[in-house]
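Person: Please work through this fold.
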Amino acid sequence: MGEDEPVAIFTPDNEPYLGLPWVHELDLLISSSAVLSQQVGAWSRRANLTDLQHAVAEIAPSAFSVALSIREMVRQGYLLSGYVLLRPLMERAATICHLAQHPEDVPLWRSGWAWKDRPKLQDRLRALATTPDGQVVEPMLDVFKQVVKTYNGLIHGDPVAASFSLSADVDGPVFLAAKDLVSPQRADTLCFDAHLFLLLMTGRVRLLFPEPARAAQRIRPYAPRTTDVWPPSDVRDPLAKPR
């Protein structure tokens, strides 16, 4: 590949959004979560799990895999695809939080989690926005209700989905059909969302699996590098100006 040719595959050494605050924060959480996943997996093979632990042990690995996929989409510049994956990550995190709060619904999961029988997403989002001691964080719940509409539009190809591939060009706005390497705010907001859902999910996992969680904390503790609690742009508007 010549010096002037575009990079086909980015690596951790030359990826376009390396060093952005929430990209970095997601990297730290993923590293810690990977150790947690390994510890829970090893512990679950020798322990007698409750039905709730069984259900969470089935859901959490796929959620972690989706989070890893989002991170790889950011690395390769496929931001629209990364945003599309936020809905399945959010749903898995919400389901884990709901089951932890309502273990009486675990049999529904065990029986197939049928669409007509399982709790509505709005109810699971309430659990996602609830602290472990049972307090609903209403501002967070309001944000979740708004962003799920955006995520639905991204999945179904609504006009909002097109706006997430809109970028600036010397001749005016263009809709990108490939990598988006010029949208740091969009990339950082994507990582903020993925970080939030992964953090809420792993928090419940740690409570449900205290022994492996303590071992994971000793091996690779998660130490946040930022005190910000809101994303780089308002309510997932991909064209919003920085605050």
The first strand starts at residue 166 and ends at 167.
